[in-house]
Amino acid sequence: MPRQCRIMYLGLCDYVKAYALQKRLVKERIAGKIPDTLLLLSHPPVYTIGRGGTREHILVPGEVLEREGIKVYEIDRGGDIAYHGPGQLVGYPIMNLRRHGSDLHKLLRMYEEVFIRVLAEYGVEAGRLDRYPGVWASYDKICAVGIGVSNWVSYHGWAFNINPDMKYFSFIIHCGIRDKGVTSLARLLGRDVPDCEIVKAVAGHFGDVFNLQLETGYSAAELSEAVGI
Hints:
alpha/beta
């Protein structure tokens, strides 16, 4: 039988507040106080640099970042530098990985599988590339993935490009990969796709891939109390 997973769509959410919420939920999941939980949201423009990254992969000077309102954070996920901003669907699964195989490589493949299935709904053939985590349409990345784990509970997750402003990717060596491109669903389809449509598709495929029964959870009051969202 599918296990329970609470899901919450936060809309546009400050990165620092969302990170604080993740850390709180990780502690609660480790303690067994909450079930597996999926946060879906987007962020104001921000670059995050994982443990394998470097600020040298930012290609513009600080005054450009300041003018564009882009913040930079060095964080505790795997991977290199990534962009998060409006027009993306970011997902943070807080899951007990002992219930999902205790295998980090498998976890990444399962995240990728969610978006390969989502894209197939739109007639987009997508897949994986050797040595490069994420989901690719030909040689252009459309979904970045990066994970953190604490006591076998996951956090961080993915950033799926629905219709972001693509100029922000030109300011960095995205994911530290110099010879590949970046794309979005809107660019591939030649039209916009409503965020709510993507949220529904992602939630459905996430539940299927991880054999989880998704239920709406967390009231606005609970989240506000947690980190002031």
